[in-house]
Amino acid sequence: MDSYSDFARFYESLMEDARYSERADYLLGLCERFGHKTGLCLDLACGTGSLTRELNSRGVNVFGADGSAEMLTEAMRGDGILYICQDMCTLELAEKVDTCFCTLDSLNHLTELSEVKETVRRVGEYMNRGGLFIFDVNTPYKHREILGNNAFTIENDDVFCAWQNVTEDGMLTEILLDFFEEQEDGSYQRYSEQFFERAYTREELTNALNKAGFEPLAVYGDLTCEPPAEDEQRAVYIARKKG
Question: Residue 89's CB: how many other CB atoms inside 10 A?
Fold first, then answer.
């Protein structure tokens, strides 16, 4: 996975629709819905740690892991939370966790199904019996109809971003980002990032969970407790580690 060396600096200013506070409440609500106490919690692919901090502020015993040192540099700004630099596919923990959250399409950044399977297997390996694994993914619909071969612009006080997508077979999307940051003299510095995301079917993800020793409990639309709609852009999976 790309280290997002420049993207890390601009990430939060581009994630205004992430709704971290609402998402933290939603995730904890799902735990309550399935009768689960969070215990020791891993925020996997935590990025700059915004969701991790929201969970921590709600009293969750949480730590974050991300494969990008640049993202973690942004995360580690005096909040006292433990962050570890670990790639999802090679995750190794010092102790088992009771809950794992992996949000905001992080698994889509794994472009091979084998990588997804290995990540899910490792989460299962480091999860206590009865633990909950809750993750979300961008849907095939979003890759085909929203991201696919489209271009977007995002502008705020910090940066102007030109975002272009190239989608192959409706599932694999190449994402090209150009950032333009205003300098003190009024000129603009350009930074570029490139990475890929792949959509996975419900069958592929459910099979990966089953093989890793998880019992799939539910699949919901984003921030809901209802089945995903046909035009759902993000689906949320809840699974319990079997004994």
Answer: 17
Give the pLDDT confidence of 59-109 residue by residue, as tens digits: 999 999 999 998 898 899 868 899 999 999 999 999 999 999 999 999 999
Burial of 12 per CB tally in 10 Å (0-12, 13-18, 19+): middle
CA–CA gap between residue 134 and residue 219 (Å, rounded): 10
Rounded Cα distance between 46 and 106, Å, is 9
pLDDT in tens, 9-29: 666 655 666 899 999 999 999
- Residues 6 or more apart whose CB falls under 8 angstroms from that of 93 comprise 42, 126
Report residue 66: phi and psi, to 5°: -155, 150
Kindly state the helix (H) or strand (E) to which residue 20 belongs, with its residue range: helix 20-33
Contact 101, 123 (CB under 8 A): no
